[in-house]
Amino acid sequence: MVGGTVLFALDEDPLGAGAAGGQLRRIREEVEAQGLEARWARTGTDARAVLRTEAGLAAAVVSWDLPPGKRSPGEQGEKRGDETGGAAVLRQIGRRFKDLPVLLVMTDGADDDLERLPLWVAETVVGYVWPLEDTPAFIAGRIAGAARAYRQSVLPPFFKALRRFDDAHEYSWHTPAHAGGVAFLKSPVGRAFFDHYGERLFRSDLSISVEELGSLFEHTGPIGEAERNAARIFGADRTYFVLHGNSTADRMVGHYCVAQDEIALVDRNCHKSVLHGLVLSGARPVYLVPTRNGYGLAGPLPPGEIGAASVAGRIARNPLTQGAVSPHAEYAVLTNSTYDGLCYDAIRVARELAPSTPRVHFDEAWFAYARFHPLYTGRYGMSVGPDTFEGPDRPTVFSTQSTHKLLAALSQSAMVHVKPSPRAPVEHERFNEAFMMHGTTSPLYPAIASLDVAAGMMDGPQGHWLIDEAVTEAIRFRQAVARTGRRVAEAGDRPAWFFGAWQPPAVTDPATGERYDFADAPAELLRSHASCWQLEPGADWHGFPGLADGYCQLDPVKVTLTCPGIDATGTWADWGIPARILTAYLATRNIVVEKTDSYTTLILFSMGITKGKWGTLLDALMDFKALHDEDAPLDRVLPGLVAQYPRRYTGTTLRELCRSMHDHLRDADLVGLLDTAFQELPRPVVPPQWCYQRLIRQGTERVRLADAADRVAAAMVTVTPPGIPVLMPGESIGAADGPLLRYLGALESFDRRFPGFRSETHGVTVDDETGDYAIECVRQDEDIPAP
């Protein structure tokens, strides 16, 4: 049996009479007898609907003279006025699938049937069918043979080998001990586990002893083939599959790139795993400071921050660099795109940093899809190469990508992509030592297969199709939010406020110069032109200073919802809807967002987003507005919160809670304190590695905020929101009235005032009785060395 689906895009009625109809019906029956499912479409519209929704196609049989039907609203694709329905279907197959076998059905009319076809058709189809000239069994055999070959070719290397091994049904005499799941069948709880996941998962959970599947550490066999295939797809010279997530990939790259007492340039908007890499290597960090806006969102590193003169000044002023082995940085790492969807002109960034370092690491945990849509051209690490950055100054570029975040892979699946330069060559054997140091000798083969499949899904036109669909749905949602807000304001029968989406209020068509409100802009314009998403220097809607034309761009699939209360310039309103209250309500509707700041919340439009999913979110936003405007009792809106903290919230209404929390945030100026704490960096005292060694040898102690002034932090402090380290190990906490302790003190006060809305603060211990914050500090009797 072949398996898969065959699209029959034919005008004939499959149940009708007549010689041609009867013959086609018999062909379909023969195809189904060979294990293929048949989908019949009688118009171009129906056929295109099947192409959009049926990813399991293995072949297509298309009539050139298929009636076109009506183009559905918002349907993508180029309109060609007199084009046949068959031609439109062939074009959509080319956009949707890579090498899907297509047989073109010809009529039994004129002898010049083939000659009247455009030349491009011959490059699209694999053959032709005259239904009455061969037997149904023969024609069905041709279809099934093409489908069988396609189904085999579509499988990427490792997944294909894993399926082949699974089909062999070999006895297992190696680890893991569950032996293909058999051990689970000997225990009631094990049987429940086995039944929940199914036998195939456990049969594919294998040991590295299975030589025919290759080695993750040696990069041989099907695993090595899969990594090389991924490198081709993602545009890298070399790609490594990494388990345990992008955090491990970051540590791996950092540990390889910089050595003991060498200087590393580090984006302060970095993930904590970057710091862990510095702890392991013993590097001396010099932090580069990104911009921030009035919402409290972290922006990009501005061009002025990464230029050679600015970097040299930061290195010279940093106390830690006095003990470095060289005054020059060996490595630079920055986040691209940021958590909130800001992505750089990567080629420009590489040029700006090239005088300062031979190695640049783009942490692209949230940006693995960038190569597969033209909106992101030149905005990802692997776009920096000899074709875009000529000459000897080009740095070696690393990209680490959390493949599972926004591509279709299992959790903890990640990749490292490398594009080396002669200036800083990357010898595989040397890098592989770092790879093995951070890897595991017991890899989960389904996770490796998911990396292989995630890469395969991006190969060819299907990759663009999948990302374009996510971009399109994000745009539709963004415009729906903007239009809903406008309708609410114009209705006049309710308070004229609604939530917003963080995006430019208007865009310009670069071809015509015509200006549109964002809500009314053609979707095709927003889908196709990166200029619509670029952050113009000085624009109030984004609020970031110091940018240059084209330097930074907003990623449409990362949608930040904005709440009334403050704007991107930091201007406070008299009233507001703190985002933590909104997301608490959304959770009661089984809607879980990615991140919540004071007045913004982030939602991600991955490939799994559907209209039904975002329509449900939009409905929940409308319902929250109605509950707020009618001043609904809080026990009706957030019953779990009231039940958990009855003394604090019983008798409170939703509007009262929003007002009191907004007043507290405004009076404390929490967003302003956040901005100051991130812009005025703490003074570095000792390298992070020295602090870690004290931490594991009882050379540290927990100190309350009230007593922490001028102490040296021994552990990183990361507050979510915004999810960025505010204090690094080895840094001075500063004065009692300094920016850091004022900000943390305001958070401490907020948590006491509004139980149930506590910030997630890594590196801070909270006393359950008093609510006091405590930070891990170096003991005062420790002999702190000079840098």
Automatic annotation (TrEMBL):
Region Disordered: list its residue ranges. 66-85
Q: Which domain of life is it from?
A: Bacteria
Record's keyword terms, sorted: Decarboxylase, Lyase, Pyridoxal phosphate
Say yes or no: keyword Lyase present.
yes
Under InterPro entries, the record lists:
OKR_de-COase_N, Orn/lys/arg_de-COase, Orn/Lys/Arg_deCO2ase_major_dom, Prn/Lys/Arg_de-COase_C, Prn/Lys/Arg_de-COase_C_sf, PyrdxlP-dep_Trfase, PyrdxlP-dep_Trfase_major, PyrdxlP-dep_Trfase_small
Listed Basic and acidic residues bias regions: 72-83
**Signal peptide interval:** none
Residues covered by the Orn/Lys/Arg decarboxylases family 1 pyridoxal-P attachment site domain? 400-414
Coiled-coil positions are none
Q: Member of which family?
A: Belongs to the Orn/Lys/Arg decarboxylase class-I family.
Q: What is this protein called?
A: Orn/Lys/Arg decarboxylase N-terminal domain-containing protein
Q: Which organism is it from?
A: Streptomyces hesseae
From which lineage does this chain's organism come? Bacteria, Bacillati, Actinomycetota, Actinomycetes, Kitasatosporales
